[in-house]
């Protein structure tokens, strides 16, 4: 009986030894499958992150455009600059004619004063 029990024990050990590598292979395959599923999950999340970043950039651009709205349109700015230039010219003429030239500052706005200046320039030629 001891022979039979030893043979049975040997057969069981050999079965276990053969089954262990099979089990290890199956576990490795399962691990690989889990790893590939995790990698796929990472790829999906990366894509989702990219899309999220794109949407955030679009929203930032829209907000930047809204902030760039001009308070005064360009054509109004040009008109304002021209008016300021005319005021500066008139002020300069008044200071020059009234203070430096010993005349009345408001006389520069009269037509007769300008006619007199034109006559002096034409006679000089």
UniProtKB/TrEMBL annotation:
Domain of life from the UniProt record: Bacteria
Keywords from the UniProt entry: Membrane, Transmembrane, Transmembrane helix
Entry annotated with the keyword Ribosomal protein: no
Record's compositionally biased regions (Basic residues): 47-56
Basic and acidic residues bias spans: 9-28
Polar residues bias locations: 29-38
Segments for region (Disordered): 1-62
Record bears the keyword Nucleotidyltransferase: no
Segments traversing the membrane: 74-100
A Pfam cross-reference name: EpuA
UniProt name for this protein: Anti-sigma factor RsiW
Lineage of the organism: Bacteria, Bacillati, Bacillota, Bacilli, Bacillales
């Amino acid at each position: 009986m001891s022979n039979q029990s030893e043979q049975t024990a040997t057969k069981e050990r050999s079965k276990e030894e053969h089954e262990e590598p099979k089990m290890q292979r199956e576990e490795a395959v399962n691990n690989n499958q889990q790893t590939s599923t995790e990698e796929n999950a990472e790829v999906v999340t990366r894509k989702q992150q990219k899309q999220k970043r794109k949407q955030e950039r679009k929203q930032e651009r829209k907000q930047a455009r809204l902030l760039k709205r001009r308070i005064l349109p360009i054509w109004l700015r040009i008109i304002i600059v021209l008016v300021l230039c005319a005021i500066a010219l008139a002020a300069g003429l008044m200071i020059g004619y009234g203070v430096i030239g010993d005349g009345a500052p408001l006389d520069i706005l009269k037509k007769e004063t300008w006619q007199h200046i034109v006559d002096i320039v034409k006679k000089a030629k």
